Amino acid sequence: MSKKQILKWKHIVLILLVLVLSVCGKAWRDFPKHYKSLSYVTIVHVLYYKLCKRHLVWEFTPSNFNWRLLRIIHIFIVTPSLVLLFLSKYPKARWKQLCYLVKWVLSSSIVEYIAHKQKMIQYKHGWNIFWSSVLYAMMYILSSLFTKRPLLTFFLSVCSIVFFIIKFKVPIKSKQLFSRRFDTIVDCFYHSKLEDLL
């Protein structure tokens, strides 16, 4: 089996692992209760790919996997399943909430660190596991806050987006050098080794 095929199977195993945990944890039963939070997380995930289209700070390494399909699976299935699993067992006591949050952030960060070492996730433009941990903490906190305090969640989301744009120098107002007809070619460049070389 080639390295690309092994990487493809690693992605499949990771996706299946999250789905199995979600099913075994019976988190799907709480979907009607948390669907707004899951929609929020999905929208933020899509927004990341839209705003950082030409300046992705982290990205899944596709290798033998259609990169669009891999993104769609993570945006609409994996990440919402992870958040649903988190929210379904979210405790009510403040101290327990803090311990629960720390456990989830550490667990998610460890899994991502292993995935990064296995070349399943690439970091660019100064991103590292520390920033991923911060992002996990924000994702879990804001998803739990969304249904109770949507305006506050929206405000904190906008502040964090602005912070990350400034911190990682994301070019928001860059002029498009190519028309939409060439988007596919440009996307292939940004998802290949050529981007690292140039």
Summarize the structure.
With 198 residues, this protein is mainly α. It has 8 helices and 2 strands, in the order ααβααβαααα.
Task: Give your account of this protein's structure.
The protein is mainly alpha-helical and 198 residues long. It has one domain (3-170). Helices cover 69% and strands 3% of the residues. Helix 2 (31-51) runs antiparallel to helix 3.
Taking all residues together, what is the mean pLDDT?
87
Shape: globular
Number of helices: 8
Would you list the SSEs in sequence order as H and E?
Answer: HHEHHEHHHH
Task: Report the β-strand fraction as a percent range.
Answer: under 5%
Tell how many strands the DSSP assignment holds: 2
What structural category do the secondary elements indicate?
mainly alpha
Whole-number total of structural domains: 1
Cα-to-Cα separation, first versus last residue: 30 Å
Extract low-pLDDT stretches: none
Q: Summarize the amount of helix as a percent range.
A: 55-70%
Radius of gyration: 18 Å
